[in-house]
Amino acid sequence: MSFFASQEPHRWAEEYFSGAEMSDVRRTDRIVAMAEAMAATPGGSIPTLFARPYDVKAAYNLCKHPEATPDNVQAGHRELVLSERHTPGVYLLLEETTALSFSGRKPVPGLGPIGHGAAGLQGFFVHAVLGVRGSAPRADAQGSRRPVVDILGLCDQQYDARKPRAPGTPRESSQARKYRERESYTWEHAGQRIGPAPEGVRWIRIGDREADIYEHLRSCQALGHGFAAVLILEINWYRTAI
């Protein structure tokens, strides 16, 4: 099974998104319709995906609905990916935190500061874990590694917005920061949401240097996950701590 299966868009959308957890079946149908339109027109904006203004408005209404969270929209998709990851083999779980920017001088409700916190820099953070089926981590006679076999889809996705500091409020002391939950906890939390690796299956968590977090690596060991942090420095790649 591949997330980018070679099948027509409607069948693909039904397979991956009809299991969305919504309180109204019409919202689930809308999710499937949006997924189908996005598969048929990759990279297209919502206004270009639909011919009828009604469908464009319905898509925007769904996006702002409180139920339209990653956990609810991706529920059926993640179940398929989880089922596939229980098949004996080696799987790479590629994860990264990305800042989505909606910069502008006027604050947008629900967004928070990003980057170095300058005026106009606002958005939120998304931490996503992509599952791929990989070959066993060994080299062939020529010393080259076998390629990744298949992209399965999203294992987990979290989002968060920083709370802006009120004007005139002093910066938090280093002592206070020590005892509050850090943003880096997202990595450890992702592992807890993914769960322990089953018998006969190898899950290897792959991150960049942001993943070099003691608590995250200890959590990987407790859950039976392999782990690797890939550091990029100029044109050289360094891999640590498998």
Label this structure with key terms:
globular; Serum Albumin, Chain A, Domain 1; disordered C terminus; 242 residues; 7 strands; single chain; seven-stranded mixed sheet; 9 helices; 24% strand; Transposase Inhibitor Protein From Tn5, Chain A, domain 1
Name given to the CATH homologous superfamily of the largest domain: Transposase Inhibitor Protein From Tn5, Chain A, domain 1
CATH class of the largest domain: Alpha Beta
Q: What number is the mean pLDDT?
A: 84
Distance between the termini: 27 Å
Shape-level CATH architecture of the largest domain:
Alpha-Beta Complex
> What would you call the shape?
globular
* Poorly predicted spans: 232-242
Instruction: List the total number of helices.
Output: 9
Q: Please describe the biggest sheet, giving its number of strands, its sense, and whether it closes into a barrel.
A: 7 strands, mixed
Order of helices and strands: HHHHHHEEEEHHEHEE
Cα-based radius of gyration, to the nearest Å: 20 Å
Strand percent estimate = 15-25%
Fold and architecture overview:
With 242 residues, this protein is an alpha/beta fold. It has two domains: 9-71, Serum Albumin, Chain A, Domain 1; 87-240, Transposase Inhibitor Protein From Tn5, Chain A, domain 1, CATH 3.90.350. Helices cover 33% and strands 24% of the residues. The protein contains nine helices and seven strands, in the order H-H-H-H-H-H-E-E-E-E-H-H-E-H-E-E. The chain has helices spanning 9-17, 25-40, 46-49, 53-63, 70-73, 75-85, 174-178, 185-194, 214-223, and strands at residues 89-101, 112-113, 122-134, 150-160, 201-207, 226-233, 236-240. Strands 1, 2, 3, 4, 5, 6 and 7 form a seven-stranded mixed β-sheet that branches. A hairpin with an 8-residue loop joins strand 2 and strand 3. Helix 1 crosses helix 2 and helix 8 packs parallel to helix 9 (214-223). It starts with 8 loop residues before the first helix and ends with a strand. The model is unreliable at 232-242 (pLDDT under 50).
